[in-house]
Design brief:
Strand order of the largest sheet: 8-7-6-5-4-3-2-1-15-14-13-12-11-10-9
Largest sheet: 15 strands, mixed
Strand content: over 45%
CATH class: Mainly Beta
Number of helices: 3
Order of helices and strands: HEEEHEEEEEEHEEEEEE
Distance between the termini: 54 Å
Shape: globular
Radius of gyration: 20 Å
Number of strands: 15
Structural class: mainly beta
CATH architecture: Clam
């Protein structure tokens, strides 16, 4: 038996071994629902509920936010958002984003991936903007990590009915969050701020639950803290 291997054969063997050894990223279950408490400066004022449904080819995400307890009486109605689109090897590819706040007319972002443009619709006005591969909407952005987990710095273009926002996030490390849904191992992301930007955003993703969003913390320019934390996860 000839035990001598050519360098090319050794390289191919090493690559195949690495592929076999590398853990495959599991996509989330076909149906996932997460309930969140939303607090303002530590006081819980609203409850959020988000549901993801997919068949590995297309997806639908429904998001709803309502006042909680006495704050429900002062609330003019729920904030309802939704995103639908395709699932690709690179992640979610939204087709339509819908945003309705109370009794107001809904706002939309409609994606045309052939023309590489998005149409923003608000108050009867329409405006088109260019998009690039990987562009997300306000709902799909957070759930996209469940299909394309972050491997380093995240840079993404996010669309809604009002226009375009660019975000950059860095990986801050891993943490265990103690929530009403249990102790959850998370990957912590922190927004990379541009000069003069005083608004902070942090995201926690469940590493053992397909990187679904567990916590979102926003600190406004005036120091107001808006904290959304999972209280229940169902699949």
């Amino acid at each position: 038996m000839n035990l001598r291997l050519r360098p090319f054969q050794i390289l191919i063997g090493a690559l195949l071994a690495a592929l076999v050894a590398a853990p495959a990223q599991a996509v989330p279950p076909a149906h996932v629902s997460v309930t969140y408490d939303v607090s303002y400066n530590g006081l819980v004022m609203a409850v959020g509920h988000e549901t993801l449904q997919h068949d590995a080819h297309s997806y639908q995400i429904e998001s709803q936010l309502r006042g909680k307890g006495v704050f429900a009486l002062a609330n003019r109605g729920a904030v309802k958002r939704s995103s639908r689109g395709e699932i690709t090897p690179a992640g979610l590819k939204p087709v339509e984003f819908r945003d309705q706040r109370g009794d107001r007319e809904p706002e939309f972002a409609r994606f045309d991936w052939v023309a590489h443009s998005v149409t923003h619709e608000r108050d009867g006005n329409r405006q088109a903007s260019p998009i690039t591969e990987g562009t997300q909407d306000r709902v799909s952005f957070f759930w996209n990590f469940a299909f394309a987990p972050p491997r380093g710095e995240v840079s993404v273009q996010v669309e809604d009915g009002r226009g375009t926002t660019h975000f950059r996030f860095a990986i801050a490390g891993k943490e265990t969050l103690k929530t009403d849904a249990g102790a959850i191992e998370c990957l912590h992301l922190r927004k990379i701020k541009d000069p003069g930007d005083t608004r902070d955003t942090e995201i926690w993703l469940a590493t053992e639950r397909s990187f679904i969003p567990i916590r979102l913390l926003v600190v406004e320019k005036d120091g107001t803290r808006v904290d959304q934390v999972a209280t229940r996860i169902e699949s």
